Amino acid sequence: MELNELQQQRLAKLERLRAAGIDPYPPRAERTHTIAELHARFDELTAAGARVTTAGRIMGARRVMGKLAFAHIADESGQIQLWLSRGDLGDEWFERFRDDLDTFDIVQASGTLRRTKTGEASLFVEQLVLLAKALNPPPEKYHGLTDTEVRLRERYLDLIVNEATRHVFRTRSRVISITRRVLEERGFMEVETPVLQPIYGGASARPFITHHNQLDQDLYLRIAVELYLKRLIAGGFERVYEIGKNFRNEGVDRTHNPEFTMMECYQAYADYNDIMELVETLFRTLAHELTGSTTITFQGQAIDFGPTWARVSIPEAIAERTGIDILDVTELAPLQAAIRRENLKVDPQPSWGKQVDELFSVYVQPLLIQPTFVIDHPVALSPLAKKRPDRSLLVERFEPVIAGLEVGNAFTELNDPLDQEQRFLEQGRAYAAGDDEAQQMDTDYINALMYGMPPTGGLGIGMDRVAMLFSDQPTIREVILFPHLRQRE
Predict the structure, then answer these.
(1) What is the reported pLDDT for 433?
(2) Which of 107, 131, 234, 306 lies 20 to 30 Å from 207, alpha-carbon distance?
(3) How many angstroms separate the CA atoms of 424 and 103, rounded?
(4) CA angle, 73 then 77 then 81, to 5°
């Protein structure tokens, strides 16, 4: 690897340390207290004159003034000032600190706690050990690093210098753990299903394809876990869930990443009304535990999870916003003619269902700021959902939408194997007509339904989007530790 001038300077210091018999990357460290613990117990440890050992990364400039030197070190829990004197530390390590250590080096420091004349809580160092020599210098103006390209490509650097980024991912972790707890308190069992699948299904999306050499078999990275979880409901488990990665071969934008995290759960002897109650409880719990309130702020908008969520019907909302009754124009050509007649600005789609979805996405969804259940989806868009008994063109399905952001999908699950087979055949015809996101025939899943699956409510929640909401981040890339990016030139 070709090193720049600053890296070469640091490498020369590393070689100087090694020549002096000092291992710049020792295999072990000692630590009696984290930095947060030092601050929490500062008065107690100071009064006892206790000798403590902590460790962390040198942050900011090192200041050397004659026989005294100062620096701040940070671990995950916080920062503390090191106060070093030639008399306490000794000539060798005082000079090592002055000449051979740099910002971002990781050190272990032992000594006693006191306050400086300015009142700053400090560790007065009696012994210093180098734990890891940093060959990369900090970027210029690294405090508050804002270059998005650098932050996303070098997330490790972003985490080193930006406490706000660390907070985002702590929040994300809590979102997932709270979700897991809510489900398990309701009797759901966590399971694991295949990531490599012989037939992809459970969603409308293009898959990533791979190949198993020994079996000489093409396999797909899963686009959803739905069909495998419903096999488990057919097998007799009544409440199951999975939190894991899905993969869709689609574009990258503010709300989409090819690799993303989903939670899917299925509850036997329930319908989509029961799942609505689960969603309301989940988001209310998340808001309260993460913020202490049922109201959060997302991109300057107050979002209240306290009340019962509004319900918006797709056909009614589209008619109100565009003047088109989609249930009167149930073929693609007449629907597109109506769109032209109303002079609506939407992209043409390959099927009637997707054109309806595009109309809703452009003219209705951005207006749904407070938590809303979008209901009454067309059958053509919902090959795995049960039809409404009173309106056969629509299904018992809802999407939770918050601040204009769709965060999930839920159904009363279709459990009629013969109806399911016909839906798959219709999807096959759509695929042949050019819809490359149409679902595939899965005869094994139909076979599972033929053994009998009870009435079931199912739910999928995009955990990345939920993390966006509760950490107030405008794009999905900010809540994925290592988002997919274009290759560098």
Answers:
(1) 85
(2) 234
(3) 60
(4) 25
CA end-to-end span of the chain, whole Å? Answer: 17
In which region does residue 179 sit, left (phi positive, over 0), alpha (psi from -120 to 50) or beta (all else)?
Answer: alpha
Is beta strand 387-388 parallel, antiparallel or unpaired with respect to 391-402? antiparallel
Kindly report the three-state secondary structure assignment for every residue of 466-481: HHHHHHCCCCHHHHCC
Closest C-alpha among 372, 323, 368, 317 to residue 343: 323
Which residues in the chain come in under a pLDDT of 70?
A: 141-144, 489
pLDDT single digits (tens) 427-455? 999 888 888 888 999 999 999 999 999 99
> Cα–Cα distances in Å, from 267 out to 211, 236, 416, 458?
34, 11, 17, 6
Tokens for 485? 């990016």
Q: Angle 432-459-249 (CA atoms, 0-180°, nearest 5)?
A: 40
> What's the rounded Cα separation, in Å, for the pair 412 and 322?
29
For residue 259, the cross-strand partners are 247
Question: Any bridge partners for residue 244, and if so which?
Answer: 262
Of the candidates 122, 142, 155, the one whose C-alpha atom is nearest the C-alpha of residue 38 is: 122
SS (H, E, C) the chain: CCCCHHHHHHHHHHHHHHHCCCCCCCCCCCCCCCHHHHHHCHHHHHHHCCCEEEEEEEEEEEEEECCEEEEEEEECCEEEEEEEEHHHHCHHHHHHHHHHCCCCCEEEEEEEEEECCCCCEEEEEEEEEEEECCCCCCCCCCCCCCCHHHHHHCHHHHHHHCHHHHHHHHHHHHHHHHHHHHHHHCCCEECCCCCEECCCCCCCCCCCEEEECCCCEEEEECCCCHHHHHHHHHCCCCEEEEEEEEECCCCCECCECCEEEEEEEEEECCCHHHHHHHHHHHHHHHHHHHHCCCEEEECCEEEECCCCCEEEEHHHHHHHHHCCCCCCCCCHHHHHHHHHHCCCCCCCCCCHHHHHHHHHHHHCHHHCCCCEEEEEEEHHHCCCECEECCEEEEEEEEEEEECCEECEEEEEECCCHHHHHHHHHHHHHHHHCCCCCCCCCCHHHHHHHHCCCCCEEEEEEEHHHHHHHHHCCCCHHHHCCCCCCCCCC
pLDDT at res. 436: 85
Task: Report the candidate in 38, 55, 73 with the shortest Cα–Cα distance to residue 160.
Answer: 73
Q: How distant is the alpha carbon of residue 170 from its chain centre?
A: 11
Q: Is the dihedral of CA 409, 412, 416, 422 positive or negative?
A: negative
